Amino acid sequence: MRGRFITLEGVDGAGKSTHVEWIAHWLCERGVDLCLSREPGGTPLGEKLRELLLDPAQQVDADAEALLMFAARKQHLAQVIVPALERGQWVLCDRFTDATFAYQGGGRGIAASRLAILEQWVQGSLQPDLTLYFDVPVEIARARLMATRALDRFEQEQASFFERVRTGYLERARSDPARIRVVDSTQSIEDVRAAIAGSLTQLWARA
Ligand code: ADP
Ligand code: MG
Asked: Hey, which of 18, 108, 201, 207 would disulfide with 62, CB 3.0 to 4.6 Å?
């Protein structure tokens, strides 16, 4: 039986990395054979593109950025995601196409209709079965990030950029409410986990 595809989304500092292991554990406890991955990246080629895309020293044209994201994604789908799902593994991915609509669409201003062309090209009808979007006001995400690590090329953007990214995510969530679950990530880690567990339980019941 084909596996399920789960993606995690949200601005930098929203809490994706914080919850990924917990979600993996939740699934593995139920006997799911899980493939963990991330975007951009997830393949040798994709990880090289990731390095370039996140490098603060690179000057990247907005369309070039979007095309590289989808190039890395196509490689990831071909080499990792689709074969895993076909083997019956579940795939849990830290970011996927919603991030491109949010960052390159909302953040950089590329029209969603243009990104949709690339989405169709690269994915056809393939979409995640469940997307957990960790929603948090930009200032909170910012404060969390500052406390933890050196900022990459995206993370160094202005607050206004992240406001547009957040708006991009929320628009995307409104356009596909059956797939994208908006999780209020201002809550405590425990309460966020309770919300995640609710969504996973629903997905599990359908599997
Ligand atoms: P992301 O992977 O989405 O960029 P992280 O999971 O790395 O975000 O979280 C960024 C920081 O915020 C981490 O230090 C993490 O411990 C903290 N954090 C995440 N979720 C919460 C939460 N619900 N409440 C308080 N702090 C949180
Ligand atoms: Mg992270």
From this structure: 108
